[in-house]
Amino acid sequence: MKEQWRLLQTGTNTAFSNMAIDHAILVANSEGKVPPTVRFYGWMPPAISIGYFQSLTDEIDIQACERFGVDYVRRITGGGAVFHEKELTYSIVVPESHMEIPKNIMASYGRICGAVIKGLQYVGIESIYAPINDIVAGGRKISGNAQTRKLQTVLQHGTVLMDVDVDKMFSVLRVPNEKIKDKLIADVKQRVTSVRHLLGKEMRFTQVAEAMKAGFEEEFHVELLEGTLSQEEIALADQFEKERFSAKQWNHRR
Question: Residue 133: which domain range?
Answer without folding.
Answer: 3-251
